[in-house]
Amino acid sequence: MKVRDPRRMPAATWPAVLAALLLAGLALVLGQHAAAELDWIDADSWLRNALATLDDTQPSVWVLIAGIAAALLGLWFLIAAFLPARRSHLAAEGPGDLWVSPRAVEALASDAAGRAPGVLHAHSELRSRRLKVKALLAPGHEAAVADIMEAVGDRLSGLAELEIAVQAKEAHR
After folding, report:
1. Element (H, E) at 61
2. What superkingdom heads the lineage (predicted)?
3. Per-residue model confidence (pLDDT) at position 109
4. Radius of gyration of the chain from Cα atoms?
5. Domains of the chain, CATH where assigned
């Protein structure tokens, strides 16, 4: 049995929520219109009043702008409906079905870099399979970059295939 890989929310989630809210608002307006037309309530129809304000013989600029905005919003909804959800975790190497979160990879890399000789502080950031490690070195430890690369590579071996970049800066005396 193939297990699906962990994914984020689909891109169409927020447009779907927005569309549901717009449809609920439309249902409210239509319900109020029906109640006003059937004399169930003692009020004018919101829909009839709104349509009366739109009854203009001259084309309005704001109607054109609203139409363009509606077309762009519809295009955005259409594109979002076809976008696949992004993967939220990285697949670990090996025969099993093991996934690791990007934050866990960052924490492991920061800890490994921080334990390398001559490193005072380390911070890692993972962006699309590229791990950037920033390290603050003790004065006089220029060769620590190779040690950081080796320590991070050893710690992350077997987890995921990543491109590792190290930026090291020497602390001031």
Report:
1. helix 61-82
2. Bacteria
3. 92
4. 29
5. 13-82 (no CATH), 91-170 (3.30.70.1350)
